[in-house]
Structures are given as structure tokens and as C-alpha cells.
Amino acid sequence: MLIKWDTDPKQDRFDRRDGRKTMKAIVTAGNGGYDRLQCRVVRLPTLEPGEVLLQVLAAGVNNTEINTRIGWYSSSVTTGTEAAATTEEEQATVKADGGWNEATPFPFIQGTDCCGRIVAVAPGGDESTIGSRVLVRACMRQSGFESMDNIWMGSDFDGAFAQFVKVPAGEVFAVDCNWSDAELGTIPCAYGTAENMVHRGNVRKGEHVLVAGASGGVGSAVVQLTKRRGATVTAIAAKTKMEHVLSIGADRVIDRVEDVVVSLGKNSYDVVIDNVAGPAFGGLLEVLKRGGRYVSSGAIGGPLVALDMRTFYLKDLKLIGCTAWDEPVFPNLISYIECGELRPLVAKILPLEQIADAQSEFLEKKHVGNFVLIPPPLDD
Questions:
Q1: Burial class (CB in 10 A: 0-12, 13-18, 19+), 30
Q2: End-to-end alpha-carbon separation of the chain, Å?
Q3: Are 269 and 288 in contact (CB under 8 A)?
Q4: Could you tell me the CA-to-CA distances from 101 to 31, 158, 224, 279, 379 in Å, in that order?
Q5: Which helix H or strand E contains 69, and what residues bound it?
């Protein structure tokens, strides 16, 4: 569906005032379905000290934006993302605790992934950076890396589903490569989340790693990032996607409908990296060796799982949750890109105004890699 850009005032902070410059943006008005995505002409952001203004060149699509819009993070939601999204389309409900960090600041502009170009800096900023093509570190540790406190672009403050976005200058990273804007737009959230899990899980050369949901944006990134560390990787994916997952580096792929314990055997893996959870969770712990590590940053298959505590403590397992990115994660990704150690996986490119179509198709999970949205030209 093609959304037309709305210039009518909505009596909110995005309305144009005092002749200020404007931009086109997708404003998420509140919890609910695709009707909450408003394609609007809004005020251009005003820079505060220490900030830079980026022209958004490409913005990736992630589960995070859908989860936030439908209020999936609320304790009242017990199903996976796809089922919850269907429910919200049929009967939208407002959820005070629906954001990942409790309340969501509606109305606001989502968009966690951003490839952009610096077009302005706040007074006192480094003007030599103007014109640089950059990626934005979406997870920001505003209290320093000694604290686990963190905020996310596109969840806690306005993000990249717009022609422009403002961000702290310290959170942008210039990247020197021949990738397209769309290819770079796949990186920040998916690959940052993946590298953070691989880093936290301390994946080492020679270890056996099992990756669940290996065909999605995060999962396909995990496959590549664990292989570059020298691990042997078994991936779980739909039968139709198995060959593609093998092509990005997996040593073995099993069908997601298989029983992992029967197919892989108990006590056979050093690390499990899982963003699916749901009914398969218990089996993933069974295949871990004694002292093994289970690492997760999501639960698209369902947030409520059955845990046999005996499996957990008798095997001395480590369960590692990952939301706040550690300090080395994003600089590592930039270096991997510049050294040619990663492969971008663009599933589909759509114009920003077709965000509802992109998210709807994204939820079908028939793709491998990432969807990317391109904002309209500035003279459009």
C-alpha cells in the first residue's frame, strides 16, 4: 500500500511552526496496527550541543520496530511477534509497558538502523566530518560502559524512518567501503545485536555453535560472525532457506521442524545463540555441553518458555541475556566491513512510504537477510 504524505497539523510536537524547515517522516502514533504509521511532513530536528544531523540514506527494518508498535514487550503479551502483530491488526490495545524500556514515547519516529551522511554539526562540533557517510550505533550507553543503562535510537527517541535524524556525535562511525547505502543499512541493529551476542558468549576458535533462526537478519549475521572467529556452526532454518544459510558459511543446517535433541544429540554444543525461544527452548539447553553458554537477545517464537532447572544447574550452564552492547562491538563491525570480512544480505529494498508493506512481508519470514527502506529524495 502506498501512503501519501500528510501535511495537516496533528497538534503534537511534530507540527511545523514558525516557518521552520520540514522533512518527510513516518510517525508512529501509538500502539496498534499499520494504521498507526503516519506518513507526515514534520519539523526538521533542531541540533543540541554535541549532536550531528544526518541525511538518512537507508534504514533497515527490524523486529524491534514491530514489537514496539504492537506493544509486544508488555508482560500481557505471551505469544511470538507474528501472532501478536496479527492480534494488534484485529484489535489494537494501548500498553503502558509495551516498550522495551517500559513506556514508549508516542508519537515518535521509529527506525533503529541508519546509514546516513553528516550534513550539519551543532555549534562547536567537528565540521570536518560534514559529508562523511556513517553508520549509527543504535544502542547507546549514555551512562558509560561501566553501567548497563542504555537507550535505543528509534525506541527511546526519534530514529531513521525519515529524511533526516539527529544523533550524538559520538555515536556515528565513518565507514570506508564500496557497499551501497542499502547494504550498509542492514548492519547496525542486526549485526550489532549479533556481534554483541557472539562477544558476550565468548565464542572461540574450534568451538561448536548452534544458531537458531539462522535465516533472519540477526541469525544470518550470527552465522557469519561465529565463522569469522573460527567456530564450527550448525544452523536451524526453514527447509526452503537451508541452501542459502549454507552459502553464508554454516557447516550444517537442520530443518527448524526437526527435534534438535534427536537430530544433534545431547551435550554436543559449546554455545547456543538463539533469538527464537518459544517451544524449542528446552531442547536447546539439552544439546549444550556441561558448562555451555546459552545466549539470547530476543524471543520471536514466544517469550514464555519451559525451563527444567535441573538441566540448568546440574550442567553448570550459563544463560546470557544481551541488550546493552559492549564497547568493542560496533567498532569491531566497522573494521570487519572495511576488511571485507562480512557479506551484506539485502532481501528487499522499498521506498520509506511503503513501510507497512515492508513490515507485513517481513513478518511472513519467507526471506533471508534484511529489508531496507529508502527515504524520498530531498527535492521530492
A1: middle
A2: 19
A3: yes
A4: 15, 15, 29, 25, 37
A5: helix 63-70
Q: Which domains does the chain have, with CATH numbers?
A: 22-187+344-374 (3.90.180.10), 191-321 (3.40.50.720)
Please check whether residue 189 is in contact with residue 114, taking contact to mean a CB–CB distance below 8 angstroms.
Answer: no
Q: Report yes or no: 372 and 352 within 8 Å, Cβ to Cβ.
A: no
Q: Inform me whether the pLDDT recorded for 78 exceeds 70.
A: yes
The 37-43 sheet, strands edge to edge: 37-43, 22-28, 108-109
Residue bearing cell 558448562: 291
Kindly report whether the peptide bond that precedes residue 45 is cis, defined as omega within 30 degrees of 0. Answer: no
Nearest to 196 by CA among 294, 100, 296, 326: 326
pLDDT in tens, 206-260: 999 999 999 999 999 999 999 999 999 999 999 999 999 999 999 999 999 999 9
Pick the closest to residue 226 from 194, 256, 186 (CA basis): 194
Cell reading at 253: 543446517
Q: Which helix (H) or strand (E) holds 136?
A: strand 133-136
Please say whether the dihedral angle defined by the alpha carbons of residues 66, 171, 146 and 312, taken in this order, is positive or negative. Answer: positive
Amino acid symbol at 380: D
